[in-house]
Structure of Glucose ABC transporter ATP-binding protein GlcV:
Amino acid sequence: MVRIVAKGISKVFKRGRVVALDNVSVIIENGERFGILGPSGAGKTTFMRIVAGLDVPSSGELYFDDRLVASNGRLIVPPEDRKIGMVFQTWALYPNLTAFENIAFPLTNMRMSKDEIRRRVEEVAKILDIHHVLNHYPRELSGGQQQRVALARALVKDPSLLLLDEPFSNLDARMRDSARALVKEVQSRLGVTLLIVSHDPADIFAIADRVGVLVKGRLVQVGRPEEVYEKPVSVQVASLIGEINELEGKVTNEGVVVGSFKFPISVQSDKIVIGIRPEDVKLSRDVVRDDGWVLVGKGRVKVVGYQGGLFRITVSPLNSEEEIVTYSDHPMSAGDEVLVYVRKDKIKIFEV
Ligand SMILES: Nc1ncnc2c1ncn2[C@@H]1O[C@H](COP(=O)(O)OP(=O)(O)OP(=O)(O)O)[C@@H](O)[C@H]1O
């Protein structure tokens, strides 16, 4: 286990014309599962490479516990001395090596006896429940077993820190679920500090205790995933961490008006965007009597799709083109007129 401390880390490329990281400060605690979420080009891989020691920060300092490992363009502790295990996007195994040889691979350049290598490989293989397939080649392994071998290879050096760079993006949906569960289970068992970077909030929700949201090289919010989901600092963060309806509203004395919808909230600023998540919207033909929900007005159903056992419904105010998406287990038809309710305490207001 290790505690990672980043102090004001910046990274520029092309003589300063590209700023990949801009003054990033964060502490990842001992044994914590920390996620970095960000869109493409935000600087996620750059941060990961700096933590791994494959790159150095242009300015700022990086500590592993109390040990300074990189500072202002200087590599102080090289990657091989950082006690890191990495899993990349592909989970790729060497096809011409057995599971045993794949797992042992990171140990081959270390001065280690054959017996010690065998002991270590067998130990990690037992933890991952693949000890019975160690003499199989990758093509003789199931997809799940291949993931376990790749993870075993990352863990065989007994790392203090496990780095995962978009590890699930190339897996199909079923494999992705099992890989997420596997990573979380193994991390809990070993207590290793874990850093995962991803553009997919589902990875973060499945794995991370805390998340840092990276936008254009800046860490704009750090918190528990559900905290960031409920109280995002900006529209952009809100949409990175989950689906959200964004509505440009006109501020009036009686609330915020969006077409024929009226949100009964009071706001100070006059240029705002309302954010409301699909699950915080309810469409009904009848009046809903529930204190948590407020009626914003009548709407017309525009599009109905079917997705994962639910109907995905797009609704607009009667007299304008704004759209709100929600999910319902009741079918509806395009053209239906419905009452639109929202959960009052879940309305998010962003100044623009
Ligand atoms: N070696 C490099 N030389 C020049 N620019 C670079 C280099 N590496 C990264 N960049 C730039 O730095 C920025 C951040 O890149 P990075 O790969 O860290 O983003 P990312 O969040 O990992 O993106 P993705 O999700 O697409 O992999 C991008 O604008 C990228 O083009």
About this structure: The first strand starts at residue 4 and ends at 13. The chain has three domains: 4-83+159-239, 95-152, 243-283+291-351. The mean pLDDT is 93. Residues 173-190 form the longest helix (18 residues).
